[in-house]
């Protein structure tokens, strides 16, 4: 029994004529007749007395038609509820954010989203990429703000902006006095990575054309878990770093960082959801809020090359077993 079959018997009851009912239902008369026969055989009840002109429902058929009308009304209510739920801008959103982005963008986003989504409550979780993807797939999170593409078929990605990477240099670095940074061979040996940030590290290694970050000499044995710690180590002449542009938005000493020449290496930042997520209007409003709070430098058009991470040899080797 299908909703379409119920629509057919309701139309037959209303118009009492196969041809007119078929026309109203946008189906051929033979098609409607076959569907009626299939339904009657399934339930074991004759719904219409075909010997009558015009067509007339049987007594049991009329009771079933009345129930069918109720079922279709309730189905319409469910459809209306789903449409309303998709478009509602109220309730709670569980938002995950990668830790290399959260400290710099989330304070700006919170200020902007208060005006755009005043009736939404956001619970924000900062974590690394692998954990965020797992939480999206298991339903722990509704939305994640992270670098893409993920390569996961069960996730949907909605790009918001491209964030350039910049070189972070110690004061005596040979490129400190140049307008743009160009990679030096010795920088590959001094590149500082973040512990457990496999997607972020994979992007840095791609920029520096290094296949395996574990082979970099001079790495410290203790864990570096934040970009701010990493930058402080560069200031102390303990290494070289590549950081996202938002992390230096409020830096006073412009000599410590240099942009890459065009095409600039960038990471694509997207809102990511599970494939079953249906609240598209919410995503649109969140994207608008994120875009509105970005520095003007990130809104301008520029030549870039997107740095991916999910297909990096380093990422594949480092995350094996997760």
UniProtKB/TrEMBL annotation:
Report the protein name in the record: LysR family transcriptional regulator
Q: Which family does it belong to?
A: Belongs to the LysR transcriptional regulatory family.
Which residues does the UniProt record annotate as the domain HTH lysR-type? 1-58
Organism placement in taxonomy: Bacteria, Pseudomonadati, Bacteroidota, Flavobacteriia, Flavobacteriales
Q: Name one GO cellular component term.
A: protein-DNA complex
The molecular function terms in GO held by this entry are: DNA binding; DNA-binding transcription factor activity
Q: Which SUPFAM superfamilies match?
A: Periplasmic binding protein-like II (SSF53850), Winged helix' DNA-binding domain (SSF46785)
Q: Name one Pfam family in it.
A: LysR_substrate
Which keywords describe this protein according to UniProt?
A: Activator, DNA-binding, Transcription, Transcription regulation
User: Does the keyword section mention Protein biosynthesis?
Assistant: no
């Amino acid at each position: 029994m299908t909703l379409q079959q119920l629509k057919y018997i309701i139309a037959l009851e209303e118009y009492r004529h196969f041809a007119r009912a078929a026309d109203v239902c946008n189906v051929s008369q033979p098609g409607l007749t076959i569907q009626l026969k299939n339904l009657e055989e399934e339930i074991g009840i004759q719904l219409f007395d075909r010997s009558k002109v015009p067509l007339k429902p049987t007594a049991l058929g009329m009771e079933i038609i009345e129930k069918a009308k109720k079922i279709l009304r309730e189905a319409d209510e469910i459809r209306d509820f789903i449409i309303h739920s998709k478009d509602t801008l109220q309730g709670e959103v569980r938002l995950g954010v990668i830790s290399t982005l959260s400290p710099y963008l989330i304070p700006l986003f919170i200020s902007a989203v208060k005006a755009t989504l005043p009736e939404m409550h956001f619970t924000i979780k900062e974590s690394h990429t692998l954990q965020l993807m797992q939480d999206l797939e298991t339903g722990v999170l509704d939305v994640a703000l992270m670098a893409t593409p993920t390569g996961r078929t069960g996730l949907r990605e909605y790009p918001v902006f491209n964030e350039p990477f910049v070189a972070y240099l110690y004061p005596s670095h040979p490129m400190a006095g140049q307008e743009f940074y160009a990679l030096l061979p010795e920088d590959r040996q001094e590149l500082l990575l973040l512990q457990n940030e496999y997607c972020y590290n994979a992007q840095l290694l791609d920029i520096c054309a290094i296949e395996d970050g574990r082979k970099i000499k001079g790495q410290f044995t203790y864990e570096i878990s934040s970009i701010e710690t990493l930058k402080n180590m560069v200031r102390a002449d303990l290494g070289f770093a590549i950081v996202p542009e938002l992390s230096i938005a409020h830096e006073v000493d412009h000599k410590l960082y240099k942009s890459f020449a065009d095409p600039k290496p960038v990471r694509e930042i997207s809102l990511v959801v599970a494939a079953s997520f249906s609240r598209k209007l919410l995503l649109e409003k969140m994207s608008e809020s994120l875009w509105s709070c970005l520095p003007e430098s990130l809104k301008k058009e520029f030549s870039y090359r997107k740095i991916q991470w999910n297909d990096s040899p380093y990422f594949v080797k480092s995350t094996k077993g997760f």
